[in-house]
Amino acid sequence: YGNHLVITPQSPVVEIGTNFTATCLIINTAEVTADDLYWNLSVSSVIPEQYYTKINASALAVTVPITREESEWLFCHCKKRSPYVVLNKSIFTHGIWLTKGYRPVRAENLSCVAEQENDTISPILSCRWEVLGPQTKAVQTTYKLMVEVVLGNTYNVTTTHNRARVFLGTFPSHMELDVWVLAYNLLGTIESEHLRQDANDLVKTYPPSSVKVIAEQGFPTSLLVSWAHPIHKTIIKLTYQIRFCLHGSHTWSYLSVPHASTYDDKTSFRLQNLQPVKDYVIQVRCKCFRSNLCHWSNWSTNVTETTPEDRPTSKPDLWQISGSGKSEEVQLICKVMSHYVVNKTI
Questions:
Q1: Is 117 a residue whose pLDDT tops 60?
Q2: Other CB atoms within 10 Å distance of the CB of residue 30
Q3: How far, in Å, are 124, 198, 240, 299 from residue 206 at the CA level?
Q4: Do residues 64 and 24 touch, judged by C-beta distance below 8 A?
Q5: In angstroms, rounded to a whole number, what is the distance separating the alpha carbons of residues 31 and 28?
Q6: Start and end of every Fibronectin type-III domain (predicted)?
Q7: How far apart are CA 13 and CA 102, in angstroms?
Q8: How many helices (H) and strands (E) does the chain have?
Q9: 266 torsion bin: left (phi>0), alpha (psi -120 to 50), beta (else)
Q10: Integer Cα distance of 36 and 93 in angstroms
Q11: Tens digits of per-residue pLDDT, 182-232?
């Protein structure tokens, strides 16, 4: 005869933290009515009648709170003990599998970077975002990274992680990009905020190359730092930052290199107000010129240099040594520039 009880909806995906309603329908028989039906979950005893709603003589609904994360069965049974029901018990029972999960949560703090590759920019855009909110194994969230070259092509890649890489063919220098993430699962879809900016603002170059530090005699409190651009200025224009510390110290001082013009090609800077005859460790890094959103490069390797000696700031110290008898010896010690003159005996 086929089943006499059918539950709707079939194979539902239910959201944890909400109430779920199902209806049990009696079909192809007048043997039982809605008053003969009852509900139970696979992990509990019979669901109390206070959660039932009688729709009509052949339909009984139940509303249950979804609190547990584990997916489970929801059954509709017949409690009538007539000979026909007892002999055909299997067709007077029906169950549905409740797949449980959470709605997807919007991806947050989206950031992207395209790194320098040899003397140009890589066509691969790497993006990361924060994954928020709980998930269940049964209802996992998938993320689709969307990258649109404004007035150009659109690219996408799908992942279950919080990062992805998109191949753009050729890096779209000086073109505007629109980047966002779609988070979706069986319970819905939600879109992140859009990251819309010039493609070059997403570039991370190599550190400045050929970093040199020069100590100049006559400048005891300064060092001249020079470097070379890591990438040609027609591809991306850069601004620079220097950090320095005394050798053995872990406290860095930072200086942004000022620009003499809007598109400066400056590749040197004089550190001042240093201490004479001290070893200084110096590094340089760079990023695109026009935006605070650009990625700083890594720091260059350490360069260590010693500041020159300073002139004496006072007369030399004098020690008088008294001798025996009629004679006296005086020993004069003084410091002249970078060497000592000692032992003048009078």
A1: yes
A2: 8
A3: 16, 19, 12, 9
A4: no
A5: 9
A6: 207-310
A7: 10
A8: 1, 28
A9: beta
A10: 12
A11: 999 999 999 999 999 999 999 999 999 999 999 988 888 999 999 999 999
